[in-house]
Design a protein that fits this description.
Elements: H1 19-32, E1 38-45, H2 50-61, E2 72-79, E3 85-91, E4 96-102, H3 113-123, H4 127-135, E5 144-150, E6 162-169, H5 174-178, E7 188-196, E8 201-207, E9 258-260, E10 264-267, E11 270-277, E12 281-289, E13 292-306, E14 318-319, H6 321-325, H7 327-330, E15 345-352, E16 358-380, E17 385-402, E18 405-414, E19 419-427, E20 432-433, E21 445-449, E22 452-455, E23 457-467, E24 475-484, E25 498-505, E26 509-511, E27 520-525, E28 538-542, H8 556-560, E29 568-572, H9 594-598, E30 608-618, E31 628-640, H10 656-659, E32 675-676, E33 679-680
Antiparallel strand pairs: 1-2, 2-3, 3-4, 5-6, 6-7, 7-8, 9-10, 10-11, 11-12, 12-13, 13-14, 13-23, 15-16, 16-17, 17-18, 18-19, 19-31, 20-22, 21-22, 23-30, 24-25, 24-27, 26-29, 27-28, 28-31, 29-30, 32-33
């Protein structure tokens, strides 16, 4: 991987954090606080000023001398044995701290995977936890498995940083328990522990509700009731299908994309910087098509998972999987975990550990091409001649494992100049224990096995879209509704007409989608005009209407997830406002984020960004247990008046000479493609 060899070397403003920059940042902070032991929580690149970065990009395109964009990192840290946390901005060019602030009391930095592992280890030696395990009278040889979660805050009180630990039991079957994928989540135990991050001590045991009532807690005289194993590993299934024949996909001539300096991607008229950071994961920067700017920055900015179980302490289960754990800490695109068929390129990225050392995260990003079916087709019915092309897609994929759950997060670019964002949700549902031998009348979850309940929950996501439509400084935001025109004897005498209403978004605000009006948000360049249509060039966001936050507006979940109550928020661009739930959502009470930014009612001009919010409402099914089939959601960002015709007209025709598919004849069922006049259909 290419690296800038010293902090003084001029780095591209979009260069991903480099390992030596982690070292340099840590060293600068240690020198400032030489009398203390520094515990590093976050080391990351400080987002460059957009105006300065744009000057760099324009000079780069014109091959002019490149201006200097300050290379800075932000670092969050604590001192050993102290609860206070600090955030500094470090200038790597000067080797100095240019900003320093103490985080307010009760504001906590994210936890790393190392933090979570440490907490899970220490609870297993704690006297309070061991007493609970003894109470359950578990069978001899039982293996208790702890699982650390962020602690859900429910009041404005200033609290120390805490963790909520849930406990599970490994399989009682020796064969299943010995398997590396044995599913302990099928055996939830009836208590939880709360751990103080500073003292690393268990400060409280929470008994868990075992019935539908809010106070139906487990009692001292309730021993563990064995639960049925629910294994998902292939080797542990009673039988496996035998009738699947292999599908082999290959690229014998290699891939169609190129990578410059391990970060700049060129593919099918697309060019962009591929970045990766600890919180958002994959970020696309300076996205251009055929040399024309389209977007300055694209990222998945936040996600939240509120649970519907109202019984304490389950009411606190609301994960912020990016802000609380970080995409970089959980990315695990291992070869067997990534659906890369054909060409694969893996990327390695760095995060920091508690000592300020770069920590390697292998295989964080998988990039490959796929055949996505027909791109466009038409058959001349007069002579039977078919013209058809294939749609090729470049897939940029990251898989995040958040304890029990997986999110497959995919940026896709296609040959018709569209960008897609796809989320695939899979993994194991978070489950809770229930008393066996009792019929539970639930409306906030279902029983998936005797003694095991899967609560209803939501997965709500926020895309941050920073446009640069055919230029970096001329993008405005509007939304368009398709509306029925009234009967008018002179203009619509038969009542068939409908038209498009264009509504400019001039100030920071929010809107909701309306399927009855086919509402679409667009970014357009208000300084240019399509010579055919007379309309400004733009890109429209096509996203299905989904249900948003169901928690009551007075609830902690609603306050904390400030983006989750409207389909779109619009704010003025700021490199200091990247995360819609605020910089530090861990144990926050809310009140800092995009909802507050939008209330400023500032004029957006040509500097607006959109936050596109959508999600899954997951009411569990037995078919989701013990592992959930992928739930798929896709957003399309399509050109609109950006071109004068179909930009994929120059795609080569799909022919059998290239595709090598074979016509099935007679009883031969080994191949399955038809052919027509030498053109694949």
């Amino acid at each position: 991987m290419a690296t800038n060899k010293s902090a003084s070397v001029k780095a591209h403003p979009f260069l991903t954090l480099q390992p030596q920059e982690v070292f340099a940042t840590a060293e600068i902070i240690r020198k400032v606080h030489s009398e203390k032991t520094v515990i590093f929580r976050i080391v990351a690149i400080k987002e460059p000023n957009r105006a300065e970065a744009v000057k760099y990009l324009e000079a780069e395109r014109k091959k002019l001398p490149l201006p200097t964009v300050p290379r800075r990192t932000y670092v969050t840290y604590q001192f050993q044995g102290q609860v206070d946390a600090w955030e500094d901005i470090v200038d790597l060019d000067t080797g100095s701290v240019v900003e320093s602030k103490k985080l307010p009391p009760g504001v906590h930095p994210a936890a790393s995977q190392d933090d979570m592992r440490d907490v899970q280890e220490l609870v297993m030696t704690d006297e309070l936890v061991l007493k609970e395990i003894e109470r359950l009278k578990l069978p001899a040889g039982s293996k208790v498995v702890p699982e650390a979660w962020p602690y859900g805050k429910e009041s404005r009180d200033v609290d120390v940083k805490q963790y909520q630990i849930w406990f599970f039991l490994g399989s009682l079957d020796e064969k299943n328990l010995a398997h590396p994928s044995s599913n302990h989540f099928a055996h939830p135990l009836d208590f939880s522990a709360v751990v103080d991050d500073l003292t690393r001590k268990v400060i409280r045991i929470d008994r868990l509700p075992m019935g539908v009532g809010l106070n139906s807690y487990s009692t001292n005289d309730e021993p563990y009731q064995p639960q049925t194993d629910a294994e998902y590993a292939t080797e542990l299934q009673p039988s496996i299908r035998k009738d699947l024949k292999p599908i082999h996909i290959s690229q014998p001539e290699g891939v169609s994309f190129t990578v410059e300096n391990d970060q700049v991607i060129n593919w099918q008229k697309w060019r962009f910087h591929l970045d990766f950071n600890w919180r958002e994961g994959t970020v696309l920067r300076d996205v251009t098509y055929d040399g024309r700017p389209v977007f300055y920055r694209l990222s998945l900015a936040e996600m939240t998972v509120p649970y519907a179980d109202p019984r304490p302490p389950f009411h606190r289960k609301c994960a912020y999987d990016l802000g609380e754990g970080g995409a970089g800490n959980t990315a695990n695109n291992l070869a067997l975990g990534c659906d890369c068929l054909g060409a694969i390129r893996y990327f390695t990225r760095w995060v920091s550990d508690a000592q300020g050392r770069p920590e390697v995260r292998e295989n964080c990003i998988c990039m490959h091409e796929v055949d996505a079916g027909i791109g466009w087709k038409h058959t001349n019915y007069r002579n039977g001649r078919a013209e058809v092309t294939r749609n090729r897609e470049l897939v940029i994929q990251t898989i995040m494992t958040i304890s029990n759950y997986e999110y497959i997060l995919i940026w896709t670019l296609d040959t018709a100049a569209a960008i897609h964002y796809e989320i695939r949700a899979t993994g194991i549902m978070s489950v809770v224990p229930m008393r066996q031998g009792v019929e539970h009348d639930l409306d906030y979850g279902i029983m998936v096995a005797p003694g095991v309940m899967a609560p209803s929950h939501q997965h709500i996501f926020s895309l941050r879209l920073d446009p640069a439509i055919d230029g970096y400084d001329d993008s405005v935001i509007q939304y368009e509704d398709s509306v029925r025109r009234p009967f008018e004897p002179k203009t619509n005498p038969f009542g068939v007409a409908y038209g498009i209403e264009v509504n400019p978004v001039k100030h920071s605000s929010f809107i909701d989608l309306d399927a009855s009006r086919n509402r679409i948000v667009k970014f357009v360049n208000d300084k240019k005009t399509n010579k055919v249509t007379g309309k400004p060039p733009g890109y429209g966001i096509h996203v299905p209407v989904t249900q948003l936050q169901l928690s009551h507006p007075s609830s902690t979940n609603h306050r904390r997830a400030g983006f989750s109550d409207h389909h779109y928020y619009f704010t003025k661009q700021s490199e200091n406002e990247l995360y819609p739930s605020g910089d530090y959502p861990w144990q926050s009470f809310g009140g800092d984020g995009v909802r507050q930014w939008a209330q400023r009612d500032v004029e957006l001009g040509n500097a607006g960004v959109a936050w596109c919010n959508f999600g899954f409402t997951h009411n569990p099914r037995p078919e989701d247990w013990p592992v959930m089939p992928c739930e798929v959601f896709r957003v399309a960002i399509k050109p609109s008046n950006f071109f004068t015709q179909n930009p994929a007209l120059d795609m080569p025709a799909s022919t059998q000479v290239v595709n090598k598919s074979t016509l099935v004849t007679g009883d031969d069922q080994s191949e399955c493609c038809s052919r027509s006049n030498g053109v694949a259909s």
